[in-house]
Amino acid sequence: MTRATLRGLFVAAALVGALLVATPAAACGYDIECPVELEEGAATVTFEGASVPAVVGVSGLEAGQYAYQMLDRCLAAAETRAYCSPTDVRECPQQPGRVIDFFVVNRRPIVPSQGPAIEPVPDGFGPGDPIGDWSFFSEGCYDVTDLNPPPSGAEVFSYFERLPLPQLTTQHQPPGDGLTGLPVIFYTDSPTTQTFTVDIRGFSVVIQATAERFTWHTGDATGQITSIDPGAPYPNQTVEHSYRSGTYTAHLTVTWSATFTVNGSAPADVPGTTTTDGPPVTFDVLQARPVLTNPYD
Amino acid sequence: MRDLRGSGRLRRTLIGVLLGTALLTGCAEKQEANDTLPSTSASPTTEALPELGPADFPVPDEARTKDAAGAEAFLRYWIDLINRQRTVPAGQPLRDLGPDCNDCWRIANNYDEALAAGRRYDGGKLTLNDVTEPQFTGDEASINFGVRQEAVVMVDAAGTPVDSGLPTQPNLSSGVTLVWSEADISWLVVSMTLG
Questions:
Q1: CATH superfamily placement of domain A153-286
Q2: Which UniProt keywords are present, listed alphabetically (chain A) (predicted)?
Q3: What is the pLDDT of residue A45?
Q4: Are residues B56 and B41 in the same domain?
């Protein structure tokens, strides 16, 4: 059962009073049980599996006789009426280092691996198979820390590569047309760091993105020049290129790396980089010809 | 479980007898004595059950008893109703009989949306396999069952599939929870899980 979800959207909904719209999964157009998928980009707020009974306070025989499912209350509402409103959100008292959220717990009988089943078993089903109907079991604040490990570097990277990183603008000197024999200076004065705070499965993840490599596409046969700094204007230029006469279009590709923290932890490297392409700039490079003139004319 | 229709008939018969007695004792005008008592044969007291379900596919009488046989008969009718509504397609009868059932509404909405989009379902018939004895809790009955669903695909007006559809599912583990409605003299669907 796949679900994508909504914690970040909760915040948006709470702030603007908007309704969250659920997107039905592909199988939802048919009669069989249908998971609801909410919009991409927020945290998973559904838990199933063998660890859930302990979290909801069930043990012993009862734990083996049912499958348990924890749904965020907003998701449960969305499954009922295809949207979640701010009034569906419940707050829970928090503890440092723990993830505690409000969940609706449903359960469904299963055929136990040993002992009699809690409900009659239709023909054709064996140990571990679910039987019967999902039904409401409880709702309340549950500590899901053990079910919800902190985001891994790989998971953070999947968010990092989708962040709206800045597209750095190419500046060149001299402004306007260049001259053959006079190198064109490239630099960018756009910001080369940016901080994002994203919510991943209830964790506050701060991603500090830094431009670590600058690839200047010169627009001529040279192709590109790479630097580890953003360049600078005259007279401190570090990136320059000599052109033949002609019209050229240049742009800058920036390679971004990042570090991240989870709920204020020590920073760690995001395992991977991503790139952005800046807008192109077009300029002419003219051939200068010496002309004798009389300065007294 | 008690057959409420039986007790209803008894109640109505008693009311008829009492009304007849009241009419007899309420006559103020002097009348010649008859050799025979006026007939007290009441008009038939077997009132029809309130209409429920589509007019041309109503909930059958055998599904309107508050007992195990009635609950199972309702389940069988319900599966037939889903099959019927899928072929229309139209969802309102499913909402009428499952007013608080999330999955019933989801399926009903699917059918209505398919109709609005000029689409229909090709295949998908549900057939009950094994049905277990209903389990009762108060006014609710839960039934576990296996159900076969034939391969199904949604097609547009030209008959072209709009997605990959679903293959045949020979035995989907399923369950339904019904609640007895005194007002409707019938079972209604509280929740349902197919698969």
A1: Immunoglobulins (2.60.40.10)
A2: Signal
A3: 60
A4: no
